[in-house]
Model the fold of this input.
Amino acid sequence: MMTQEPRRGRLAGMALIVVMIAVTVLSILAAAFAYSMKVETKLAQNANSETELIWLGRSGVEFARYVLAMQLTIGTEPYDGLNQKWAGGPGGLGTSNSVLANVVLRDYQLGEGKFSVTITDLERKVNINIADQPTLEQALRLVGVDAGDSSSIAG
Done:
């Protein structure tokens, strides 16, 4: 009789370990399933608001076109400058009396959503098709190309 009691205790301890492993595995599976359902719910919400987001983006483009058109109506600023409203600046002298005086390009609230407008002029970019060799070599050095390789790449 004495020899069977320690054996029964070992089996009971082994069964407890197996049950604990099964509970842990099932808990991990339940957590993974809950996380998956959270992701699926978020994807369904995004799909429902897709049309609104498309129209919000189109509104941002039209707003940018409006700002550029209103900038052209300011007679005292017949130039493009980074101090103007469209470039994110405070605006020139003529802007204070125009419709652009209170225009905000960041976090513009429209309905349920917000959008921000960033307008970048193409004049500050270099056309590599017509750039001379020193300009290309300088650009390549600025982006981290080795100085020895920049002249052959620019050529």
Notes: The first helix runs from residue 4 to 48. The chain has two domains: 1-48, 50-124. The chain is about 55% helix and 5% strand. The chain has a mean pLDDT of 85.
